[in-house]
Amino acid sequence: MVKVLLWGTLRHATDGQAEVEVEARNFKELLDRLAVMYPGLEPQIRRGVSMALDGRIYREAWFTEIGPDSEVVLMPYMVGG
Amino acid sequence: MPLDTPKRKFKVVGTRPPRPDGLDKVTGRALYGADMTAPGMLTGRILRSPHAHARIKSIDTSAAEALAGVRAVITAADLPVLEDDFIRDIQDNCMARGKALYDGHAVAAVAATDAATARKALKLIKVDYEILPHVTDVDAAMKPGAPVVQKGRTLENVPAGMSENVTSHCEFGHGDLPSGFAKADKIIERSFRTAATHQGYIEPHACLASFTSDGKADLWCCTQGQFFVRTLCAQMMGMEASQLRVTSSEIGGGFGGKTTVFIEPVALALSRKSGRPVKIVMTRDEVFKATGPTVSSSMDIRIGMTRNGRITAGEAHLRYSGGAFPNATIEMGGQAAFAAYDLGAVRTFGWNILTNRPKEAAYRAPGAPMAIYAVESVVDELCQELGLDPLKVRLLNAARKGTKSSYGPTFDDIGLVATLEAATRHPHYTAPLGPNQGRGLSCGFWFNFGGNTCVSLNVNTDGTVGVTEGNPDIGGSRASISLMAAEELGIPYEKVRTFVADTASLGYNDVTDGSRVTFAVGLATIKAARAAIRNMCARAAKIWGIDEEAVEWIDGAACPAGPNAGKFPPMTLAEIAAVSAETGGPIAGHHEVNADGAGVSFGVHLVDVEVDPETGATKVLRYTVFQDAGKAVHPDYVEGQMQGGAVQGIGWALNEEYIYGDDGRLQNAGFLDYRVPVASDLPPIETVILEIPNPGHPYGVRGVGETPIVPPLAAIANAVSRAVGVRMTELPMSPPRLLKALLSKG
Amino acid sequence: MKSIHVTTTVNGEPAEFICTPDETLLDVLRNRLGLTGSKEGCGTGDCGACSVTVNGRLVCSCLVLGAEAEGAEITTIEGMASGEALHPLQRHFIESAALQCGICTPGILVAAKALLEQNPDPSDSEIRYWLAGNLCRCTGYDKIINAVKSAAAEMRSN
User: Fold this and answer.
1) A81 vs B259: CB contact, 8 Å cut-off?
2) What is the 3-state secondary structure (H, E, C) of B34-86?
3) Strand partners, C54
4) What does the pLDDT read at residue B1?
């Protein structure tokens, strides 16, 4: 199981939980399962999210492998100038 | 792609050779957006709403169409109705549909044989407006009952019962705020406001579009991302991407403001309708009214500190308005606000609010400067109140490797502590100050991105190398990419030339944003060079009749790897290239990647100011920038980014602002009244480059372009506040505003 | 509008053009004479990107009418180098990394040359005030000031 930290706004979709557990080996599986387990997250996932794995931020990268002890943080999709 | 080795000795990277585009730029030969021409070209011009908010009841273009020399007139009716919110907003910003949402919003456009005819034609277009109530202030727009800019744009994350102008809400942070604040010896709570500012590039937007009757088109434009322009315009024109080729000109400044389209779809639509090439060049008035700017903000900050200077809790409420369309900048501000600190309890709450202002475009570290200004102002005031050294307090609380960041992830190697220590050691920090003078400092932060990147590297038969990349050069990137290619290949910088490709010549590249180019294009260039090196080693192996694995690349030449490989004199790149036809054909390397591992960036700025108590005018006396560049590939242009960013921040802090009248119209749409810093306003900007290698890049490179605009706002506000003895909470601190504060102090 | 025939000298060479009475010298240089090195950043004389000299006097060409070029001597960025040989200012701008996007560079070079012609040894402050009419948004001006100083020093020693 992977522990995923959610930013505050998303917690309305997880009964207030800041961290949820998902069975996933990579980002694609993680996002797909999150959207199924917590339908309230689906609109944001569709709009776009970034993910931080052990401190490194990824904007897409579906097949990034997630280790069992990895820190995974969901973040809004990064925009810049 | 990980760092090769933390202690690499570079031969070419880190030197300061002349930039390859320098000669063209000092002789006037370089071709920018407005310098393009085509045979039979028409001049396009755009009619803009004089109202802040108005329903467009009808547009009568018949008189304009009848004018001799007019070849096409378009309105939103000539563009498709798009499904996707994101792209529809961009199109609606280029040409209003149904409602004009701000002063300067485009409502129609003409193409005529010359500029005078086009101007005359605009006057003949009759637009029947129903003027609607407007709102341009972020706080006023949030109030229930405020005029609604656009209906139905509120996301699911906004609580019910708020004004429809509130389009999104976000919240970040961790820990328990009440118990954090309970541990504080001193809590300060303050509200801040910052004005919208414009990127202020000196080159107005310009493009030349040429549609042919078989449905193909060419577009030349000044842009930060020709591929993104193609994506947007192809959808707006209902074209396949392959039928539209976009070529980027030299770009006369962007700073984020040229990461989207404003006139390009209009020129394409006019060209399609007229069957002739159409050029549109914006006036400066149009640039101010209808492009850029950054968000305006209103913010409440609350921070608690122990008497020893440890921050116990931080809370921020941020309200941003990016004009008449929703945007995500608030999310970046919410994440960046407290990023410099290692905090047990931190929370930011953000709101995006619609106003009758132009659609926000990205501006260098979008969303971060204002939030960090507010936070760093309160940290400074706490230091003042508690009698603490502001640098020591920042060191005590600084985020470092292993810190759980305020936006969630745990930091890897970051350079904040090193920059703070460098500032502590610098003589600037302890230099004496005179009367009416103050010293301020601030930390700054930006995420930096990687992103989609393609590079093609060709080894020419004469031993020179061409690199083709897909990002317009806004800060000297052709020089830095050539340096990295030369480093990797082991050849002189002068043997490499880097070109920016059009959209038909290379795979997709993300726009030049997020300080990504030297990082991501550099990374792809190194990988492309390594692919070419493998190929060259294979050629040498064939010539020598040994295994490929027995050949290694050293100092620009293939060499037998160790004594068992055989005894052969090294073959240089030029020698291998010269016989490439005989050994298997042309030699090239390429690399395609969606790069990650950009590595966040920190900086610290230190500034001395003097405030004239009679006029409220602020003079910047001394300015020093400390920043972690990971590895400075071309130090001149790293310094240039640090200096240029600092000066844009100085303008934001002291003078620049969008001023709206009660009629909702922009009152200062020109460089005379929107005053950007000039040479005589400024002291030298001293730079100190730190190099804490980014673990996510083979040479340790981090993006450097955006972070430098983040600290100046608070650094100057803190210096001014200390100089005058009043805490300044609104930007810009223009002379009238500062004089008012001085007078109210008595 | 009735067109006007103008005879003038541009960068030391005779030039002729026809323009309308409302065309600016900048329009004429860029659109009629093909000299696009002078840039239009504002059209109101606030940014200096269109700086040229008219009879030796530094002006914003967006504030001069094309018709005013009659009988005048105009110099633009295109006339700054002598053939292949760059003017010391141009060379020092490249060597000192005094440009980034380059859109303001032609105007700044023309203005700096006009400064050094009347003051071969300007102080930092004199350079900063002289160039106050030339906006640069990329560099923060530091490297520009340094380039002008080093070019001036080289020109004094020759």
Assistant:
1) yes
2) HHCCCCCCEEEEEEECCCCCEEEEEEECHHHHHCCCEEEEECHHHCCCCCCHH
3) C57, C74
4) 76
Interface contact B621, partner C, CB < 8 A:
no
Same domain, B128 and B231: yes
| Residue B152 φ then ψ, to 5° | 75, 20
* Domains observed in chain C: 4-79 (3.10.20.30), 88-157 (1.10.150.120)
Q: Do C139 and B26 touch (CB under 8 A)?
A: no
Same structural domain, B275 and B337: no
Note if the pTM is more than 0.90: yes
CATH number where B637 lies: 3.30.365.10
Q: Are residues B422 and B479 in the same domain?
A: no
Please indicate whether, in this complex, the C-beta atoms of A71 and B410 are within 8 angstroms of each other. Answer: yes
Residue B3 maps to a domain:
no
Chains C and A lie in contact, requiring 3 or more CB pairs less than 8 Å apart: no
Question: What's the pLDDT tens digit per position in B331-387?
Answer: 999 999 999 999 999 999 999 999 999 999 999 999 999 999 999 999 999 999 999
**Same structural domain, B556 and B538:** yes
Q: How many domains does chain B have?
A: 3
- Chain B residues in contact with C86 by the CB 8 A cut-off are 23, 26-27
Distance CA B710, CA A50 (A): 22
Give B 410-449 residues with CB within 8 A of chain A. 410-412, 446-449
**Burial class of C39 by CB neighbour count within 10 A (0 to 12, 13 to 18, 19+):** buried
Asked if residue B350 and residue B301 are part of one domain, the reply reads yes
Tell me, yes or no, whether B14 lies in a domain: no
Q: B403 in a domain, yes or no?
A: yes
pLDDT at B24 over 80: yes
- Distance to chain A for B448, nearest Cα, Å: 8
Q: Does the ipTM exceed 0.85?
A: yes
Dihedral of CA B625/B630/B636/B641: which sign?
negative
Tell me the chain A residues in contact with residue B332 when contact means C-beta distances shorter than 8 Å: 76, 78-80
Considering only the beta carbons, identify the residue of C42, C104, C127 that sits closest to B284: C42
Domain, as residue range, for B83: 33-132+204-251+258-290
CB-CB contact of B670 with B730 (8 Å): no
Query: Chain C, 36-75: which have a CB under 8 Å from a chain B CB?
Result: 36-44, 46-47, 49
The pLDDT score that the predictor gives to residue A74 is: 94
The reply to whether B29 touches chain C by the CB within 8 Å rule is yes
Alpha carbon of A28: minimum distance to chain B alpha carbons (Å): 15
Listed residue (C37, C92, A71) closest to B29, CA to CA: C37
Please check the confidence at residue A80 and state whether its pLDDT lies above 80: no
| Topology, domain A2-76 | Ubiquitin-like (UB roll) (3.10.20)
Which of B578, B595, B612 is the last residue before a domain boundary? B595
Name the residue among C77, C131, C137 with its Cβ closest to that of B253.
C137
Contacts of B647 in chain C (CB under 8 A): 140-141
Enumerate neighbours of C (3 or more CB pairs within 8 A).
B
Domain shared by B581 and B609, yes or no: no
The secondary structure of B257-321 as a DSSP string is: TTSS-SSHHHHHHHHHHHTS-EEEE--HHHHHHHS----EEEEEEEEEE-TTS-EEEEEEEEEEE
| DSSP-derived secondary structure for B616-628 | --EEEEEEEEEEE
Domain locations in chain A as residue ranges: 2-76
Say which of B170, B347, B514 has its CB closest to residue A76.
Answer: B170
pLDDT for residue B563 is more than 80: yes
Query: Is B40 a domain residue?
Result: yes
Query: pLDDT per residue over B186-241, tens digit each?
Result: 999 999 999 999 999 999 999 999 999 999 999 999 999 999 999 999 999 999 99
Q: What's the pLDDT tens digit per position in C42-77?
A: 999 999 999 999 999 999 999 999 999 999 999 999
Judge whether B697 is closer than 8 Å to chain A, CB to CB: no
